Hints:
Lipocalin; 2 helices
Amino acid sequence: MFEAFVGTWKLNESKNFDEYMEALGVNLAILKMGNIVKPDLIISVDKQGVVCMKSQSTFKTTEIKFKLGEQFDETTADDRHTKTVMTLENGKLIQKQTWDGKETCIEREITDGKLIVKCIMEDVVAVRTYVKA
């Protein structure tokens, strides 16, 4: 099931992402950059089941490595230090980040050959659509 996520994805469309970043508490300079940048998302998995997700742009490149269901420490692109767990539920790759008493959820799913990423913080939802490179 996870194999569908593997590959290089290019950001095609982004809705409400600035509101989402604002809800996270991202500072204004990073918020403005985050809205301009169109990162590539590169997802791979090795023989041991370690998943690598790399977000790559001219502004910043971040990379996380994880095993499904195991909590790990993540430093996000906007420099939050989170406890993160990734799970696969009903075909969706669910990323839960917690920090400073807050929580956000990022849901990734493949729909019509596109990678749809929903970023959810309280009542704010951003949707980013990626197409396979």
